[in-house]
Design goal:
Blueprint (H helix, E strand, L loop, with lengths): L1 H15 L3 H16 L4 H13 L4 H44 L3 H31 L7 H21 L7 H16 L2
């Protein structure tokens, strides 16, 4: 019976938890306390541990509580319960979006949004560069060297495009950046 309780309890959490993990903590606490699985003090401790371990807080809490109550199978069922609703919703949305994206009006909206997103990302990057590089460091600060490496990579990419050579793969650009970083920083 504990297995079914774990699955149903964490299915509730997975279905009704909106606003991210921190928004779900009260819901998880309500479910856990209603079943009497752990004490209030232990729950607060587990939230702190779940925040500091890799992975989503909801999954970490579900796995721990399931393991604490019913061993490996309990951990598996609790984790499945908290993840399954999101998984099903994503599958359904993907299936719907596949046909929805073929609509010419949706395509027009997407083509209009792309430049806006690029602009937002570029503006954020430029803001961060000016705030962190030029307002703090000198001509040979690590920030300036990072900018020089970035400019060098753009020049290399432009050269490859201009010469109609096969463009460098992103992995190759990362390797070149790493080599230039090691050379510049001496690490």
């Amino acid at each position: 019976m504990i297995y079914l309780d774990l699955l149903i309890g964490f299915l509730k959490v997975g279905c009704f938890a909106f606003g991210g993990a921190y928004g779900a903590i009260p819901l998880i606490q309500e479910v856990v306390m209603s079943y009497g699985w752990i004490s209030d003090e232990m729950f607060a401790y587990m939230v702190a541990v779940s925040e500091s371990t890799p992975g989503p807080i909801m999954v970490n809490l579900a796995t721990y509580i399931g393991s604490q109550q019913a061993g490996f199978l309990g951990a598996l069922l609790a984790t499945l319960g908290v993840v399954l609703p999101s998984f099903i919703i994503i599958l359904v949305l993907t299936a719907l979006l596949k046909t929805f994206l073929k609509n010419p009006y949706v395509q027009a909206v997407i083509h209009g949004i792309k430049p806006c997103i690029i602009g937002i990302v570029l503006a954020t990057g430029v803001y961060m560069i000016f705030k962190n590089c030029f307002l703090k460091g000198g001509a040979f600060s690590p920030d300036f060297i990072t900018i020089a490496i970035t400019v060098a990579l753009f020049v290399v990419s432009y050269y490859y495009k201009k010469r109609k050579k096969k463009p460098l793969s992103p992995i190759m650009l990362i390797v070149i950046s790493a080599i230039m970083g090691v050379a510049a920083y001496g690490i």
